[in-house]
Each structure stands twice: as C-alpha cells, then as structure tokens.
Amino acid sequence: MKIYPFLLLLFLIKSNAQQPTIKKVAGAKQAVFSFIFDDLNTSDSLVKSIFDEFGFQPSFAITTNRLNPKTAPLYKSYAEEGISILSHSHTHPKMNNSSVLDKESLLMELKDSKERIESYGITVRGFVTPNSYMRPEFLSLLDTEYDYAFTNNHNDLYNISVDKRHLGRFGIESNISTSDHSIEKIRSRIDQAIIRKELLVLYGHAMPSTYQDDLGKPRVTANDLRAILGYLKSKRDNNDCLVLTADLAMEAYYK
Ligand SMILES: [Zn+2]
C-alpha cells in the first residue's frame, strides 16, 4: 500500500513541527547600571543635583497620590531632560497578597497611576512594585500597560534571560554598611555585575535616607551616594559599563 509512506511522511513533518523551539538568548555586550528613587520625595531635587555633578541621570518612580499640580512640573522638567519617570502605583499597596488586593484593584493601580503621570505630559514606560514583590498571578496585568517592570520575579538573576517585566533591583540602603557607611559591598556588587555583564538597577528613597544606621543616623547620605556614583563613573570612563536612566537602560540592554 502506497498510503503508508505518505502517512509516515505526514507523521515526521508533524512531529518535527511540534519540537520546542529553543530560544537563543544573545548575551549582553556589557553591564548596564541605572538608579531609581522611589515614592516622590522632596529630596528628589537633591538626588538630581548630585547626579548632575557626575554627568549621570537618575530615574524616579512616583507614587501618584503625591503627584499634583504643585509637584508635577518638576518631574515634567526632568522628563524633558531625558530622565525616566516610572509609576510606583497610586496608593502604594502591597501587591504580594491577593487577599489584601484583588486583581481589579491592582489593575486600577497600574492604569490609574500611569494615566495620572501622563496627564501632565510625561511619558511612562516602567513600573516599580511597592514593597518590591508582585505575586505571580498578577504579572500578566502589566503586559498592556508597561514596557518593563520591577516585580522581583527574577530568580536572583540580573541578566538578559530575565523577562523585562519581572526585574529585580539592588537596594542601596540594604547594602551599605550600617556601622561605618562603607560602600564596599556595593562596590563589589558593581564589579560582579561588570564581569557578568548584568543589568543592575540600584534604588533608594529619600536623601538622606529615613532608614537608620546603627547610630540612629540616616543610613545613606548625599556623600554616600557621591561615593557610589564616583566609583561607577570611573568604571564608565574606563568603558567597563554604561550608566543610564531607566528607559534608556532597558533599550540598551534588551536591544
Ligand atoms: Zn515605595
């Protein structure tokens, strides 16, 4: 019967088509660093001026219940300079627990905060989850609203294999020495990111930090930030890495 070779051929074509395609992920060419300051604090202008000293640009993740006609013009002017403005939700709820926040409310937080920032003529591409972690069941809600997001669903990886809507960040406050303001741990994490060609996004809040060191003083001061930026500048000037505002960092790393 001639039908059998034909069926066999069909079977072979079909089984071949069903083989999973192995996604080839090209490695990043070099490490990319970015800095995001959360919440919308009055010290954001100090942060901006410190970055100016080094010729770098920070990014700001805004909790939009603090955004109003009084506070917005500053961020609009930053956006016009090329600084990335991200959403950090409207009311800063925890997004790690569906019993606290249901899907509908979460979607409102995502949409509403973005629209509020955009209503001032500021483009928004990124989102930062309040308190860092977003429950996996909520992640798909980000897809229609944001190009990239920090949700801490990244399995401790900071490379090109991480979906750019599931990124993690590296805390300045949690990694600076609480006894003597040494930035040694941050410096060595920067060195490691350069070797591994990672996308490492550092973050902070108010400046000086409202988190305290062992002496009850601000855990991160303006001079601590200068020390970190000075170290990164020496690396960038040596062509070891790029230091970019968040939107540009994503473009450069995920191109
Ligand atoms: Zn926050």
TrEMBL record:
Residue ranges annotated for the NodB homology domain, each copy included: 31-138
Top-level taxonomy: Bacteria, Pseudomonadati, Bacteroidota, Flavobacteriia, Flavobacteriales
Identification of the protein by name: Polysaccharide deacetylase family protein
Domain of life: Bacteria
Organism (species): Arenibacter arenosicollis
